[in-house]
Write a structure and sequence with these properties.
The complex is a heterodimer.
Chain A lengths: L11 H18 L13 E6 L5 H12 L3 E5 L12 H10 L4 E6 L4 H9 L3 E6 L5 H15 L6 E5 L6 H12 L3 E5 L14 E4 L10 E4 L15 H8 L3 H6 L5 E3 L12 H4 L6 H20 L7
Parallel strand pairs in A: 1-2, 1-3, 3-4, 5-6, 5-8, 6-7, 8-9
Helix pairs in contact in A: 1-5, 1-10, 2-10, 3-4, 5-6, 5-10
Chain B lengths: L2 E11 L2 E10 L2 E6 L6 E4 L4 E4 L1 E6 L12 H10 L2 E6 L10 H14 L3 E4 L15 H7 L3 E2 L9 H14 L2 E4 L12 E2 L2 H6 L3 E2 L2 H17 L2 E4 L5 H12 L4 E5 L1 H5 L21 H13 L4 E2 L8 H4 L16 H6 L5 H16 L16 E10 L18 E10 L2 E5 L2
Parallel strand pairs in B: 1-4, 1-5, 6-7, 7-8, 9-10, 10-13, 11-12, 13-14, 14-15
Antiparallel strand pairs in B: 1-2, 2-3, 5-16, 16-17, 17-18
The chains are: A alpha/beta, B alpha/beta.
Chain lengths: ~300, ~425
């Protein structure tokens, strides 16, 4: 593996292998001293050109648990605000000795460009509404750890699919691992042309309340998601996972959300905090899958685990 | 005076090609015949000798954006592409909306002297879409084509006024058809590729809806109307229907829309970003067929230079537009038109639209020597361009068909090295 940019084209075996490795790192993280020396002496730079709490901290935690050093960059206090180009920023950080870059950017494809410019391994931490492959891994890991497998599971992804890089990545990972996926949302929040997507489509959350996993997405106001809805209350009425709806789910069904959550909109507060909500395990597993990806990209030849 | 001999080529006329030499003297075609002799000889073996190409749609960026291109570098690119006359779009800084500005562009063009340069005039003042530009002054300066290119005249009342005004003079309203209410924040064609990439996109309707409205206005005003860079099968259908109804309508297509569809954007390379965007495979097939049949009258390159650093960014952050002057003929050559139709679309029809009296004539003794020598079999790979900018989607791709030489007003303005 050279860079990890997209979930598209990753095979079932490769995905399963990454999840197996992540499982091992889950164990590492549960040790009294949750740290291995695998990437000692390596430096991972975090280039987050878009706001992020969990992904950035999760990558930092993952890098540190592998004993790598980290460097961070924030656009508001950087030379970007003095007019420096994205290319020069990336090359500058490379020149400082970064071994790998984690990139988040509002523009589709930015991590690909940075990989071209720098020649470094790049981990896509989210580009536009396109891809967020480590999110897909952590979601798949969370489901696999809960159910044992994704094979044969029915997963509903509900909400702002059109503007969601999480949905685009999850659909790929879930279906590659054998689950079936139903996308649920008003037409204005679904991608315009779903030709070639291995999914079913439903237009009300009530159609998927028998699924094994109900995966909720937030309305992406910053990508224009709010302007394609008449009102949030209408959205809640048709697509919100209210307490009442949650109560009709089968006992074995679980609820997931990539965060940040808008409690009271796509998810009722008591649903978010319910024991059948996997939101917290998702966050914890995020560290383990990012360790797995960093290890695959940078590990191996340099040091032993 | 100097003499040039185009030797051993196939001279293209309205009925086909004839093997003959073309002798050029004092800016004119002095003789066409066998075994002619003269000072400077251009070997035209295996090549077509026809009227110099004419491009009614280029962006030369002067005044105001000379870091991308200027009239000199743009003229050099045009000559290298086999062109002898071009129309420069008025979306410069300032916009070409008055007689004085139009004369500046014309004068710079003649100072450079490689191709005839005529600006299109802005339809609205400053291309702001609110008041008519100084159409009478522009007309007096020689401007015949009017466009707010880069933007659409969205205000229907204002466009009607422009059409009424220009219909009187015989001017042509050329429209960049893009309904902005459907293209906000969009980077590419709306469809299966944009859905996968999660990119904001514009539907084909953003182009077709404007053309529909404009054609209704043409019926009302009897104005001459030219559709710039037609890119969808729906637009082709609208133009075909309008022509059937006898409306005074012409249409152009850009080379990149003949060559590529939206799947090219999957690699997210800004060299494939332009407006209108690359469309579906069936749209490419439709515009190709329309150019063959003549429903689309001519090729306009929409040569849109952007500097290296402006394009060396993520796709969504890149400015829209690609250069096209130096590769257009090769791309069109790839469609397999016969030589007469090829020169019809590349020279005769655009010269007629632009009302360039000295261009677009089949080679004949006594005509101004505005000619191109084009080898339809030569294979080459464009790597470096004469344009100041290098933002070509054809860079590094083998093309068939190459300009051997360009003659502008009797002078050799380009020869393949």
């Amino acid at each position: 593996m050279n860079s990890f940019l997209t979930i598209e084209g990753v095979s079932t075996d490769e995905l399963s292998g990454l999840l197996d490795l992540a499982d091992e790192f889950v164990d590492v993280l549960e040790r009294p001293i949750p740290k291995v020396p695998a990437l000692r002496g390596r430096t991972v730079a975090m280039l987050f050109f878009e706001p992020s709490t969990r992904t950035r901290m999760s990558f930092e935690r993952a890098a540190k648990a592998l004993s790598a050093d980290t460097m961070s960059f924030s656009p508001s206090t950087s030379s970007l605000s003095k007019g420096e180009s994205l290319k020069d920023t990336a090359l500058t950080i490379k020149a400082m000795g970064a071994d790998a870059l984690v990139v988040r950017h509002k523009s589709t494809g930015a991590p690909w460009r940075i990989a071209e410019w720098t020649g470094l391994p790049v981990l896509n931490g989210g580009d536009g509404a396109h891809q967020h492959p480590t999110q897909a891994l952590l979601d798949a890991l969370t489901i696999r750890r809960h159910f044992g497998t994704l094979e044969g599971l029915r997963i509903a992804v509900v909400g702002d699919i059109r503007h969601s890089r999480v949905a685009r990545s999850d659909v790929g990972a879930f279906t590659t691992l054998g689950a079936s996926v139903t996308l649920v949302g008003p037409k204005t929040l679904l991608p315009v042309d779903l030709t070639g997507w291995p999914v079913e489509v439903a237009h009300s959350i009530d159609d998927v309340l028998d699924h094994d996993v109900v995966y909720l997405l937030r309305i992406q106001k910053e990508r224009g998601g709010a302007s394609v809805l008449p009102s949030l209350s209408e959205y809640v009425r048709r697509f919100g996972l209210t307490r009442e709806r949650f109560d009709t789910l089968p006992e074995r069904s679980v609820v997931m959300h990539p965060g940040p959550m808008n409690r009271g909109v796509e998810i009722a507060p008591e649903v978010a905090d319910h024991s059948r909500s996997l939101v917290e395990p998702q966050v914890a597993n995020g560290v383990a899958v990012r360790m797995a990806v960093l290890f695959r990209l940078l590990g191996g030849e340099a040091t032993d685990v | 005076m100097s003499e040039t001999l185009l030797k051993g080529g196939l001279v293209v006329g309205p009925k086909g090609t004839t093997a003959a030499d073309v002798l050029i003297r004092d800016g004119e075609i002095a003789d066409i015949g066998k075994d002619l002799r003269a000072g400077t000889v251009v070997d035209c073996t295996g090549a077509l000798v026809g009227p110099g190409f004419v491009d009614v749609h280029v962006h030369l960026r002067e005044p105001g954006q000379e870091w991308k291109e200027d009239i000199e570098t743009g003229s050099r690119a045009a000559a290298a592409g086999g062109f002898t006359a071009v129309i420069a779009m008025p979306n410069t800084d300032p916009a070409i909306d008055s007689g004085a500005l139009a004369r500046y562009v014309i004068d710079r063009g003649s100072q450079v002297g490689l191709v005839d340069v005529m600006p299109a005039g802005a339809i609205t003042l400053g291309r702001e879409g609110t008041h008519l530009a100084h159409l009478d002054e522009l007309w007096a300066a020689g401007v015949r084509l009017f466009s707010d290119d880069g933007d659409t005249v969205m205000d229907t009342g204002l466009l009607r006024m422009a059409m009424d005004y220009l219909a009187d003079m015989g001017g042509i309203v050329a429209q960049h058809a893009e309904d902005r209410t459907l293209t906000r924040g969009a980077h590419m064609h709306e469809g299966v590729v944009s859905s996968r990439l999660g990119m904001r996109a514009m539907p084909a309707l953003s182009e077709e809806g404007i053309i529909m409205r404009d054609l209704a206005l043409v019926e009302l005003t009897a104005s001459r109307y030219h559709v710039q860079h037609v890119s969808t099968s729906g637009s082709v259908q609208l133009v075909a229907d309008a022509k059937q109804r006898g409306l005074p309508v012409t249409a152009e297509v850009a080379p990149h829309h003949l060559a590529f569809d939206h799947r090219e954007v999957e690699r997210m390379d800004p060299a494939f970003k332009m407006y209108p965007p690359l469309r579906r495979e069936e749209d490419v097939a439709a515009v190709r067929e329309a150019l063959r049949s003549g429903v689309i009258d001519l090729v306009g390159t929409d040569h849109a230079p952007h500097s290296l650093e402006e394009k060396d960014v993520p796709f969504e952050d890149a400015p829209r537009g690609v250069i096209g002057l130096e590769t257009a003929a090769a791309v069109v050559n790839g469609l397999g038109l016969d030589p007469v139709d090829f020169f019809e679309r590349m020279s005769v029809a655009p010269a007629k639209l632009a009302q360039f009296d000295r261009h677009g004539h089949w080679p004949e003794t006594g005509r101004p020597a505005n000619l191109v020598v084009f080898d339809p079999q030569a294979v080459w790979t464009p790597e470096h361009f004469a344009s100041r900018s290098q933002n070509s989607p054809f860079r590094g791709r083998p093309l068939t068909g190459r300009v051997i030489a360009t003659v502008h007003n009797g002078s050799l303005t380009f020869q393949t090295p």
